[in-house]
Each structure stands twice: as structure tokens, then as C-alpha cells.
């Protein structure tokens, strides 16, 4: 981890891990990829290592992130998908030329066309977003119950009743708030 930057919140779903690089969207927003280098760091830990990122590529990445957030939010509440967001997701998906490759031990990895192709990495993320928004994967898009967060997350729990984007942050905060509200001495 690089000192001075907020750390990443990595989940098991690529597209929603990406939208989680901006958290507390309805509160005091925390930008977790404030610089192109920080995006490079995030891509590396997400299995999409690139060597560098230009300002233009960085802009594409953040535009894609907000488009996924908008489309996934609409999908979670079963509203019409915002056209502009869909266009951005489709453009990024079409421009990526990453190939899925199989490792000797049977894992899937992404091979980018060039070591600095942020576009390829974004293509993989866009395709991941498409698969969850289109309902192709086993799980359900939902919005975090925290009023300051409202992040979209992909619920793969058996019962599909997960309430928070992240148990360690939003979920925990909610639990603590409830606990404090129950204590008699908190009534002032
Ligand atoms: Zn949350």
C-alpha cells in the first residue's frame, strides 16, 4: 500500500470492486483512486496489471466507473438503464482486447494486448459489469443499506438478503449504531 492514499475495498466481483473505489457517495465521499498511479495500483491488485496510465486513460476509467455505478444502481432498483451510461460501458467493452488465458494450474487470467493498455483492462471491467447487470451470473444486484453509502453490490448469499456492501465497514457501523442506540445512557 502507498502511504497517504485511502486503501482499497476489494470484493470478489470485479465491476463492483471498481465502483467501490469511490465510497460514501452520499456522505463524505472518499476517492480511492485519486491519481493515475493509484489506478495502476488498483488494476495490479485486481489481476489487470498495466505499466502506466495516462491522464486520458485515467479519465476513461473514472467515466466508466461512474457509468457502471449509474447503470448498476438503476438495475438494482429495476429502473430503465441510463442511456449515456450504457453507451460508455459498451464503448469500453468494445475497445478492450484482453484475452482470457488458462494457467497451468487451471486458473483464468487476463492477458492484455500491451503492457500499458488501460483500455484492455477497462474492457474486462466493462464486460464484467455487463454480465452482472444483464443478470447472467448467479446473484443479485442490490444497494447498500447505509444512507451515506448506497453503493451497488452483488449479493451472492443463499438467501439474497445481504444488506451492506461491506460487512467490515458499512455493516459494522450500522451494528455499532444500533448497539449504542440500545444503551440506556445514550439517551440524552
Ligand atoms: Zn456500503
Description:
- This protein is mainly α and 188 residues long.
- It has helices at 14-19, 36-45, 55-76, 83-95, 118-133, 167-182, and strands at 22-23, 30-31, 99-102, 108-111, 140-143, 152-155.
- Helix content is 44%, strand content 11%.
- It has a two-stranded antiparallel sheet with strand order 1-2. It has a two-stranded antiparallel ribbon with strand order 3-4. A two-stranded antiparallel ribbon has the order 5-6.
- Bound molecules: zinc ion.
- The site of zinc ion (ZN) has 8 residues, from loops.
Write the layout of secondary structure elements.
Blueprint: H1 14-19, E1 22-23, E2 30-31, H2 36-45, H3 55-76, H4 83-95, E3 99-102, E4 108-111, H5 118-133, E5 140-143, E6 152-155, H6 167-182
Antiparallel strand pairs: 1-2, 3-4, 5-6
Zinc ion (ZN) is lined by residues 144, 146, 149, 151, 164-166, 170.
Mean pLDDT across all amino acids: 92
| Biggest β-sheet: strands ordered side by side in the sheet | 1-2
Gross morphology: globular
Radius of gyration: 18 Å
User: Can you count the helices?
Assistant: 6
The fourth-level CATH homologous superfamily of the domain at 14-138 is Jann2411-like domain
Sheet-strand content, in percent, reads: 5-15%
Give the biggest sheet.
2 strands, antiparallel
Query: Helix and strand succession?
Result: HEEHHHEEHEEH
Bound molecules: zinc ion
Amino acid at each position: 500500500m502507498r502511504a497517504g492514499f485511502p486503501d482499497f475495498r476489494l470484493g470478489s466481483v470485479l465491476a463492483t470492486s471498481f465502483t467501490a473505489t469511490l465510497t460514501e457517495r452520499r456522505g463524505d465521499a472518499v476517492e480511492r483512486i485519486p491519481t493515475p498511479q493509484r489506478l495502476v495500483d488498483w488494476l495490479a491488485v485486481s489481476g489487470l496489471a498495466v505499466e502506466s496510465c495516462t491522464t486520458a486513460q485515467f479519465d476513461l476509467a473514472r467515466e466508466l466507473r461512474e457509468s457502471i455505478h449509474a447503470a448498476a444502481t438503476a438495475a438494482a432498483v429495476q429502473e430503465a438503464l441510463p442511456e449515456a451510461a450504457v453507451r460508455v460501458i459498451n464503448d469500453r467493452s468494445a475497445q478492450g482486447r484482453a484475452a482470457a488465458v488458462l494457467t497451468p494450474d487451471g486458473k483464468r487470467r487476463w492477458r492484455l494486448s500491451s503492457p500499458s493498455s488501460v483500455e484492455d483492462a477497462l474492457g474486462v471491467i466493462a464486460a464484467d459489469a455487463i454480465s452482472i447487470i444483464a443478470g447472467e451470473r448467479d446473484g443479485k444486484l442490490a444497494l447498500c443499506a447505509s444512507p451515506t453509502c448506497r453503493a451497488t453490490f452483488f449479493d451472492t448469499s443463499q438467501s439474497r438478503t445481504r444488506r451492506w456492501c461491506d460487512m467490515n465497514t458499512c455493516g459494522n457501523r450500522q451494528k455499532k449504531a444500533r448497539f449504542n442506540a440500545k444503551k440506556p445512557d445514550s439517551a440524552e
